[in-house]
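Sample A.
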Amino acid sequence: MRWSLFVPMLVLLVGADPAPAQEGMRAGNPGPVVSEKKKNITIRRRTAPRRATPRKETPKPVVTRTAKAAPTRVDVPLPPAAPSEAKVPPPEPQPGDVAGIPAEQKLKIQSALLWAGDFPDAPGGEEPLVTAVKNFQKRNKEKITGVLTDEQRADLVDAANRYQTEFGWSVVVDPATGIRMGLPTKLVPNARDAARGTRWSSAHDEVSIETFRIRDPDLKLADLYEQEKKHPSTRKPSRTVLRDDGFFIAGMQNLKYFTVRAHRRDGEVRGFTMLYDQAWAGIVAPVMVALASAYSPFPERAAPFAALARPVEYGTGLVVSPQGHIVTTSKVADGCQVLVAAGIGNVEHLAEDQDSGLTLLRVYGQSKLAALAFRPDTTTASADPDTTGTTPTDLTLLGIPDPREQRGADEPSEIEAQLIGDSEIRLRQPVPVAGLSGAAALDAQNRFVGIMETRSFVVASAEPTAPPVHLVDAATIRAFLAAHRVTPATQSGDPRKAVVRMICVRK
């Protein structure tokens, strides 16, 4: 009985070691406990019969010499072979080649691999997804190639669907802290703001997960470590680990188990605290490995943003005419009982375009507002060759973050990003995006090229229809305004003066 109570903590502890690369604190030594848990969640292969005829391969010496001797494909006469072997097999896909996998399938595959704990640190700088695929194949005693077969892909997609159905499992980014994590949304459906991040909890608070982010270049990690061990005073740590870039604490707090994980980088500390009742240990245990595997305080891989039903939510709007017309994203204005442009006044909802995700608002009694300038030649989505194509284009995102980021201030902030293709935006650094939906995107010449929109996951589906952060281009916005007889400004001064904070008050 005593050991069963500590199994969940030991499982989470295994994933607490900070990684020197991009994925934060990860497991260094699985240990027997984690091996047993992984065994329990192994994704079983389908029971469909294999091909009756065993696959025959080219002799290993021939393949090895050919691959090393020729950097490009060269037709070499093959030795005589049996009729069934006479044809040259098509080239195998390269490890990590997921170009042919649809975006929604890729997301589910990653989610299933994260759930099973197959995303360890990649040795030798190998692509993490390749390493995860190899670990998956090794666990299932398959040929280790780093490339998924059609059957393996189907198995992983089915597994992700099962986890989604049973636990509401989704790998998301917390918009308040920038932390990527796995959320069992059916286990912790209630979400609300916390002092330094976001808190998710079960219906009666039997389980809670709370993120935190502390920006203080002078804060010593060892001092925070000591504070977390002793606060609140009811904490009784039983296992603690302090490293140069992070720490882990586990033990009892009142009558609940608790764990704290934190990681420091670039003058800030990010982490989470988890609490759960002792009676819930058996329910929480299957989730612990998945949660530890998906957790990354400074993520490099994109993921949808966690959807929060908050009573007060912040976004960014852009003044597009001196008469008080404002454009923002539908996400910012959806379901608001009261919508306010900070420093200007209450706004009226005029129109919405579901296809583009844009909303048109207006604040009355204004005639001399600083409006955002549209370039006269912006008529189509591909009018500016500097902002489309396969070569990444530098962007500056101009928006007003959540007040917690600015300690109550409302000044615009700039975030460096890149535009990939026509619409995908990749942030230069993993930063919080709370309050930035609707931010203006400016090119290297400080010209307006579109609006930034952030996509959240939907509990019923882990399949976003667009990149988590994407661009609604200026041509689409111009057409939207023209359809509602709004003429945007063509001359303006500093675009920062046209950016306003939007405050949405819901029930």
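Sample B, a different protein:
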Amino acid sequence: MRVVVSLLISTVSLSAACADLPAESTKQATVVTANRVTANRVTANRVTANRLPANRLMSSRLSDGRLTVNMDTAGKLLSSEDGREVFSFIVSCALPSDVFLEADVDGTTFEFAGEMGLTPEWLTSPLTPEGQGWISACIFARVNSSDVALPISMRGTNQALASDADERAGWSVEEGAFYGNLFTPLDQPILWIACRGAGQAAGESGGLIERDCAEPDPANPGLTKCGFIYAGDCGAYSNDQACEQFSASGTFYRRCHRAPLFHPIKNGGMNPAFSQVITTYVTP
């Protein structure tokens, strides 16, 4: 039996536009599909229960663009429906749209499709710390406590996250930024961090109504409503911002911290900066 694992991805096609690359330059693009505008529906508890090591993803090549999963890396994850769902999001974040991974699980073949292409090198070599940061940010940005597939725009310094003017116009409400480390040791909690964007700070509207992971939880100070570490407000619209820089042309944050920049850390702790940051936007 062959099963294609679907992510319920809402594809948005935008024609003839100039895409602003993370390096602050531009390139000509004829079609923009779901590479930046993507859906989310995975929940935090599924991610927590289904962790993946950073070993290489590919075992062997079946044909051009079609590869088999390294079961030493993903075998345990693929043994359950929830694990396969989490793995499908990981593959979607890591690999480009022309790559598919196949895995045989107890006689059933599952197929997982690439989409964004943040870390294609993960196919053949262990994920680097930088790659771990990008996969972490991508998964965290796609967590949604309401388990609703809502299209979001994901932006950042990775070349795979380039956006164009039409996308920025359609997805114009800044939700927040996501970063941290999904690949912590199994006996330690996931380090997932979010800061609140300008749109979210202004109140609930549009797509924000179904998005809670960058929103502080009044019942649990220091955490968001998804259970992420709440770093405060992302940018300069706040007197106590968590991120050092904002790219005006790319509309994303750079170098974001676990706590606001000028916030005293308890017990003299560190306030590290994270360079692999994904800023998310929703529709008005």
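Observation for Sample B: The mean pLDDT is 84.
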